[in-house]
Specification:
mainly alpha; two-stranded antiparallel ribbon; two-stranded antiparallel sheet
Length: about 200
């Protein structure tokens, strides 16, 4: 299938490469990277966005059919600044819905109302990975939803078991409903993304 999140990451990478190319005065390369990024941005906004649902989905390889199921890939276009403001407005509504993503530990990998949501038996079917939660909070900030991003950041840190307790291990991921720490202990990218969440940039 075609993945909206991978295309969003590639869009961001093209722009980073353009900055690097300009820095070393490879202006022709910078122009190419920017043109490729613009093409990807258009693809993200058209192929992967379902206006009826107000969500970004993966598609089949032909780009003709959405692969439905609201997950954290839905806000990666916001993190990458590849969505329109209208699209971001719609995504934000889903993200801040307690029945979907605004859980005890918000912005988990699968919507809580999905029939296959199962954080204890499905590695990407519901646990909250703090990198994905960061992409969500950062995506909200990119489109001016700072109050919502602040609220989510506070709830993520307060809800994730042990994060505020001295001597407790920071876990690989968390149960979004109970806050229970899951899988590996002393997980460095979780710790790194807690710092990034608090930077508010």
């Amino acid at each position: 299938q075609e993945s909206v999140d991978l295309n969003a990451y590639l869009y961001a990478e093209k722009l980073f490469l353009a900055i690097l190319a300009e820095t070393i005065q490879k202006n022709e390369d910078a122009t190419i990277f920017k043109e490729e990024a613009e093409s990807l941005k258009n693809k993200i906004q058209t192929q992967f966005y379902d206006a009826e649902d107000g969500w970004f989905y993966d598609t089949n390889l032909e780009g003709t059919t959405f692969i439905k199921g609201e997950g954290s890939e839905g806000w990666t276009a916001l993190w990458a600044n590849a969505a329109s403001q209208e699209q971001a407005n719609a995504i934000k509504i889903h993200m801040m819905n307690p029945e979907k993503f605004f859980t005890k530990v918000p912005f988990q990998t699968m919507s809580a109302d999905h029939p296959k949501f199962n954080p204890l038996n499905g590695y990407w079917r519901g646990p909250n990975w703090l990198d994905q939660a960061y992409f969500g909070a950062k995506g909200l900030r990119n489109y001016g939803f700072n109050d919502e991003a602040d609220k989510a950041t506070i709830q993520i840190i307060a809800g994730a078991e042990g994060v505020l307790d001295k001597g407790k291990s920071i876990r690989e991921n968390y149960h979004p409903i109970t806050g229970e720490g899951l899988n590996a202990q002393n997980f460095s990218w979780s710790a790194a993304h807690l710092i990034m969440l608090l930077q508010n940039d």
